[in-house]
What we know:
By secondary structure, the protein is an alpha+beta fold. Helices cover 45% and strands 23% of the residues. It has a ten-stranded mixed β-sheet, with helices on both faces. The protein is elongated, with a radius of gyration of 19 Å. The protein starts with a helix and ends with a helix. 38% of the residues are buried.
Amino acid sequence: MTDDGEAEAVEALQRLGLSKYEAGVFVALERLGTGTARDVDRMTDVPRSQVYGAAENLEERGLVEVQQSNPIQYRAVPLEEARETLAERFEREQDRAFEYLERAREGADHKDEHQEGVWTVHGRNNVSSRVRQIVADAEESVLYAGGPDLLDEEVAAALRERAESVDVWVCSAAADDPALTDAFADSAVALAPFPDDPTDDAAGRLLAVDGHTILLSVLGGEELPGVRKETAIWSSDTGIATVLLELLRSHVVDDIDAEL
């Protein structure tokens, strides 16, 4: 990849609303797949001291995920997800920026797509996007749990579509809520109640897929008027995923006859 092409992508991303440092870090992470601040510093002219702040800003924008390890590792979200996020505000400039980024991704080595670690996702739309991607990748089974207010139509559509090929359960304390029954009417999705009615006001949603991937979210203050901010962690093929899935099997799965 030429330096001119990279510089052009950085400039285009700046016109999409990113700062010069944010654009440089994002391009570097697309080429790296996953990297530390040191890795980014070696690939771009962004000072290492500025990488942390730029990556934090990108995380808030929903363009980067952070692995809370030592050292901290960063990973850019899939390109289509990033395209949708930026297109909401900057439609006219998006194609020029992502033309380079798509070539960079195609030329990089991403054998370790499911990496060891726990990743954090901020914002309800970003969490929903991650849920849809994990569901789409399911090969055997999906268990989704959460209230009707967190189930948007795109997530419901992803669950209905995947239920045509794998076992899909949707669990809720309000499993007979018309919003849920209508969402999955005439589909292969199985609805089931939680074994116990959750009382934690901060509880968000849970997703377990194929016995090795899990996502958990919690709700905080308001992201928009009347809409609470959601933060999720997700992990795949890790020790923490194994422990959380085992707890899920012992406290939930037995009661709904699901296999995870």
